[in-house]
Design a protein that fits this description.
The complex is a heterodimer.
Chain A: H1 10-18, H2 23-61, H3 64-69, H4 85-116, H5 119-133, H6 137-156, H7 165-189, H8 193-201, H9 206-217, H10 219-235, H11 238-243, H12 261-270, H13 278-312
Chain B: H1 13-21, H2 27-58, H3 65-68, H4 82-113, H5 119-133, H6 136-150, H7 157-181, H8 185-193, H9 198-227, H10 230-233, H11 255-264, H12 268-299
Helix pairs in contact in B: 2-12, 4-7, 4-9, 4-11, 5-7, 6-7, 7-9, 8-9, 9-12, 11-12
């Protein structure tokens, strides 16, 4: 195909026209492609079915109200209690710490990249920041436990537990900076430059333009980035499993260890539980809550991104 | 602005603004800019501290025993990560085998063969965006219930690979679609005008033109799979494994899981070993990231 088509003799063109495959072959190929695309839909169905069925039989043994509003989570005890609130509070405390770190830093980085950095420095800074997103979470977990807790935090808070929510939350916050920065920057880049020019023409400075024109104009995209970042923090497993400990505790004190929904699933799931046991089913019940929570947040984020695309593109 | 011989171009608004305000922006603006720059650098500095910390800590064990020896509980000073390295290669090999063809074919379907904004198309699109953000541990639950127990594949290389391939499928599909979308319409029209069928056009023209973009996305997707640990915790990789996998149904461990196991052991030798293994893993991942960026920059075609 690289040869210039003009030089091909007419007879050859005719030959290649006759070589066209039959419609039947095209149809088979289309079927194969459709099947490949269907795998992603089947994955979602598979997830829903595989968490829902054990969850239903879990709820047959543990009343819904005990599960959702109970304050004691001791599934591996002989007379186990299945109140999921300690896991939810652990998840929320650690996510909140991560959010406090990641929202301002992620948004700040995005505004710098989109409004201040020259093309050349953006080409270096952006991939460097994105390298953070490529670091395995187990490595972040190791860093949180060995460095953030045992080198830094222990000097500032001498009474801190070795396994604590603070180190996990801080490191998780740094981990989601690239997610928030990169999506917010996309949203700000989609703001038409006419809006910026108009603002400058009225005499505003670069800071005023960024804060009062660009950020409001890109708000739905920025909120989408925040929501997606929070969803990632809620679903993150390895950092909390390694650095925040495995004790379910109903507390708001970030210097103590706590267990999250994800780290419970990881801890219980890595043991060898028999398929029908209530402990085994509890993995799925917590997994169902986790999937539902992140699913809602992802949908909100997807909707918001679609909205700003419709406005500006 | 750099060429004085052309007709005077309009000055950029920022330049006009700078001239109106004088050469230095007000103090508040400079402080704002500094704060933004600091928020950008905190992430980068953390990354640098992390790399420096594990390299210094792992230095005593960064030698060939790391990859020639097997893990050992009683003799940490001689333990190595060989079974984890071979396990990672087995698992990722099969993951690539499942995820790449499926992902690329699915992307071809969505980009080249389906009605844009059709109902199925939109459903699949939203579904893929959501799957890309589903927590990885949830894929572990799916793998545990479906591959390990329902299909009775057990705690094997193949269970891990199938689970990881579902995990990276959205990334492969999304990046392949972007690469296909960057191929200009003219190429498809030219091919169709010469009498090629839609599939011939897709397979012989569009796909080859998109290969560099696809390769970049695929490398990044596989590097995500290499670093993934959470779903494998549910799929048997935590068992103490001191042998290399012998086949797809064999037991296995992987580098991130081995790091996790060593991190759990509080003995200092194991912390050093974990650091050294982290360096090994990071070198591998950074090399892959670098290759991806290189391919993207080298082959960036201006159509």
């Amino acid at each position: 195909m690289s040869a210039s088509p003009i030089s091909a003799p007419v007879i050859e063109v005719e030959y290649s026209l006759r070589q066209t495959r039959s419609r039947a072959g095209e149809k088979v190929i289309r079927g194969v492609l459709l099947a490949a695309a269907a795998v992603s839909v089947l994955t979602t169905i598979g997830i829903v079915v595989s968490v829902l069925i054990p969850t239903i039989s879990f709820l047959a043994e543990v009343p819904v109200t005990d599960f959702l509003f109970g304050t004691v989570w001791t599934p591996l005890f002989a007379n186990g209690q299945f109140g999921v609130l300690p896991l939810i509070s652990g998840t929320l405390v650690i996510t909140a710490i991560a959010v406090v770190v990641a929202l301002p830093l992620g948004l700040g980085a995005a505004v710098y990249l989109s409004e201040y950095a020259s093309d050349r420095s953006r080409r270096v800074l952006k991939p460097t920041l994105e390298l953070l997103a490529g670091i395995p979470t187990v490595v972040f977990g190791f860093f949180a436990l060995e460095f953030v807790t045992q080198v830094l935090l222990i000097r500032i808070f001498p009474g801190i537990d070795i396994f604590n929510a603070l180190s996990a939350g801080l490191v998780m916050g740094v981990m989601i900076i690239p997610t928030i920065a990169s999506l917010s920057e996309d949203a700000m880049a989609a703001v038409p430059s006419g809006l910026r020019d108009g603002s400058y023409a009225l005499g505003s400075t670069k800071r005023q333009t960024a804060v009062k024109v660009v950020i409001p104009a890109a708000l739905s995209g920025i909120v989408a980035a925040f929501v997606l970042g929070i969803s990632r923090a809620i679903g993150e497993t390895m950092i909390v499993t390694i650095a925040a400990g495995l004790e379910p505790r109903l507390t708001l004190n970030p210097l103590e260890g706590m267990q999250t929904m994800t780290s419970y699933i990881a801890a219980a799931g890595s043991g060898d539980l028999s398929t029908g046991s209530i402990e085994y089913k509890s993995i799925f019940a917590v997994g169902f809550l986790l999937f539902l929570l992140t699913f809602i947040m992802n949908m909100v984020s997807i909707r918001l991104v679609r909205r700003y695309r419709q406005v500006y593109q | 602005m750099s060429a004085p011989d052309t007709a005077a171009p309009l000055a950029a608004p920022s330049q006009v603004q700078a001239e109106l305000l004088g050469s230095r922006p007000p103090l508040r603006d400079r402080a704002f800019r500094l704060a933004l720059f600091i928020s950008l650098t905190i992430g980068v500095v953390t990354l640098a501290v992390l790399i420096a910390y594990v390299t210094i800590k792992g230095w005593p064990r960064l030698n060939s025993t790391l990859w020639t020896n097997m893990p050992s509980i009683r003799r940490p000073e001689r333990a190595g990560a060989q079974s984890a390295i071979t396990g990672t290669l087995w698992v990722i090999g099969f993951t690539a085998l499942f995820a790449l063809p499926t992902g690329i074919l699915a992307a071809l379907h969505l980009e080249e063969f389906s009605k844009p904004n059709g109902r199925f198309q939109r459903l699949v699109e939203v579904n893929i965006q959501n799957l890309a953000a589903v927590p990885s541990i949830v894929y572990g639950i799916l793998g545990l219930a479906f591959f390990a127990r329902a299909l009775a594949l057990g705690q094997s290389v193949i269970t891990a690979s199938l689970t990881l391939s579902l995990l990276i499928l959205p990334i492969v599909i999304i990046s392949t679609r972007e690469a296909l979308r960057a191929v200009p319409r003219n190429i498809r029209d030219g091919s169709l005008a010469l009498g090629a069928t839609e599939w011939q056009t897709a397979y012989r023209q569009t796909l080859p033109a998109a290969i560099p973009g696809i390769a970049t996305g695929v490398i990044l997707a596989l590097s995500r799979a290499i670093g993934e640990a959470a779903p494998l915790l549910l799929l048997g990789a935590v068992t103490f494994i001191t042998f290399n996998p012998t086949g797809p149904l064999s037991g296995y461990t992987t580098l991130p899981i081995q790091i996790f196991n060593w991190t759990k052991d509080s003995r200092e030798e194991f912390q050093i070993l974990a650091s050294a293994t982290i360096v090994l893993l990071l070198v591998l991942l950074l090399a892959m990231n670098f290759a991806a960026i290189l391919i993207r920059n080298r082959t960036q075609k201006r159509w």
